[in-house]
Write a structure and sequence with these properties.
Keywords: Hydrolase, Signal. It is an enzyme of class 3 (hydrolase). One of its GO terms (molecular function) is hydrolase activity. Helices cover 34% and strands 14% of the residues. With 432 residues, the protein is an alpha+beta fold. A hairpin with an 8-residue loop joins strand 6 and strand 7. Helix 2 packs antiparallel against helix 12, helix 3 runs parallel beside helix 7 and helix 3 crosses helix 8. The radius of gyration is 21 Å and the shape is globular. The N terminus is likely disordered.
């Protein structure tokens, strides 16, 4: 155990050194973004708007200290509503996860949380868990868990419960999660964090802690762990420790009344009509960010702007520092942004769709690039995509941050053309 721990520390320290070196090397280059590629990006996004693929979008490319911000379209389909702007506020779904993970690791550095110790003291609902003998089996056909749940398992989403990629719901555990209101969905949990844990704790795990990757729920539980460790709502802790110091003034878990004119419609497929047409997804469909939620979802509940989210990404790009203030140690960032999954975990049926055709793994709260199977991936890049129409990645090797925010839900496991086109042109903008 001591040898393994020492090797992990050695590897983490080396990774942090390489991470810092990569950023430092890029900082001497000061390349200029290609005007031609940026114009092509603008034209491409306006074409997506004209063809009805999206109402609008705002994006930011940061490269070697230079920011480019672009917009296309309007707040509503068919050119209606206000034009998209730099300060437009978007519901960003799962790109919330890296922010929650960073906050959790700040508390680990402070000694408030432990990364590999049991979370039982703060989350007694996860004590003495039962585990399904088989994933498609009845809920009462279980065995004792082979160990306790840890924060690392929550952040790597290997604690034992989450999205089961069978559609429509076919397994008893899927149906039970849906009935309890804790299944991954565009509708965020409509209950208090204590009620969420009661409902989750009443169900068996789908796999032993640390055994298998199941998307999403681990970051909601991590957010609740933060709340119980600090005695505050997740949003309050996040503002105090991360959002306010970073200057993320328009980021939070709801949009206050005085800013709601900057929040565009949310669109998604009309499932009653085969999903071919886009329709508005508002409060009547469970998507409401105009009031404080009953639970701050660490997995998918943030709203933000391109400048706000880019500030977080730039902090991560620079190994945990921004504008002379340190938020995380460099070796903590290196640990967060290394692949934490085994080959078997990445290729399992309920994980593989999240691994970008084998080009990505998973770190602590975020995807980690292993090879270039998607235009947002390079070895060492990190970030994630959000189901409400958002993508944000950081690439230390190339000194690049890209943030693309739209209001069109993802409609399939395949990445939208808008994401692909944004990242293709962003890469061309820094390569020219």
């Amino acid at each position: 155990m001591i040898k393994a721990l020492s090797r992990r520390r050695l590897m983490t320290g080396s990774a942090a050194l390489a991470f810092s070196s990569a950023v430092s090397n890029r900082a001497t280059a000061m390349n200029t973004l290609s005007p031609q590629a940026l114009e092509t990006l603008k034209d491409t996004m306006e074409a997506h708007v004209a063809e009805g693929r999206m109402a609008g979008a705002t994006w930011l490319i940061h490269h070697d200290g230079v920011d480019h911000v672009g917009t296309a379209g309007t707040f509503a389909l068919n050119g209606e509503g206000a034009p998209m702007a730099r300060d437009t506020i978007f519901r960003v779904a799962s790109i919330t996860k890296p922010v929650t993970a960073a906050l959790a690791m700040m508390l680990v550095e402070d000694g408030v949380l432990t990364l590999d110790g049991p979370v039982n003291d703060l989350l007694p609902e996860l004590t003495d868990r039962r585990v399904l003998k088989r994933l498609d089996g009845p809920l009462d056909d279980t065995v004792p868990a082979n160990g306790p749940v840890t924060l690392r398992q929550l952040l790597t989403m290997t604690f034992g419960l989450g999205a089961i990629m069978v559609f429509p719901d076919a397994y008893p555990i899927q149906k039970a999660m849906r009935e309890a209101g804790i299944a991954p969905s565009w509708v965020l949990p409509k209950m208090s964090s204590d009620d969420y844990m009661k409902k989750l704790g009443a169900l068996p795990l789908a796999a032993h802690p640390g055994e298998a990757f199941f998307y999403n729920n681990g970051l909601d539980v991590a957010g609740i762990l933060i709340e119980r460790a600090t005695g505050q709502r997740l949003g309050a802790v996040m503002h105090e420790r991360l959002l306010d110091p970073l200057g993320m003034k328009d980021t939070g878990f709801h949009v206050p009344a005085e800013k709601q004119d900057r929040l565009p419609n949310q669109y998604g497929p009309d499932f009653t009509n085969g999903g071919a047409e886009l329709i508005a997804f508002g409060p009547e469909k469970g998507v409401d960010f105009t009031n404080p939620p009953p639970m701050d979802s660490g997995a998918g509940g943030l709203v933000t702007t391109v400048d706000d989210y880019a500030a977080f990404c730039r902090m991560m790009l620079h190994g945990g520092t921004l504008n002379g203030r340190r938020y995380l140690k460099a070796d903590t960032v290196a640990e967060m942004t290394r692949d934490q999954l085994t080959p078997g975990q990445k290729t399992a049926p309920h994980a593989t769709m999240f691994m970008d055709e084998g080009g990505a793994g998973w770190g602590l709260g975020m995807s980690v690039g292993l090879r270039k199977t998607r235009p947002w991936l390079t070895p060492g890049s990190f970030g994630w995509n959000g189901g409400f129409g958002t993508t944000a990645y950081t690439d230390p090797q190339n000194g690049l941050v890209g943030v693309f925010l739209s209001q069109n839900m993802m409609t399939s496991p395949e990445p939208p053309r808008t994401y692909m086109d944004f990242w293709t042109q962003a890469r061309q903008a820094i390569a020219a």
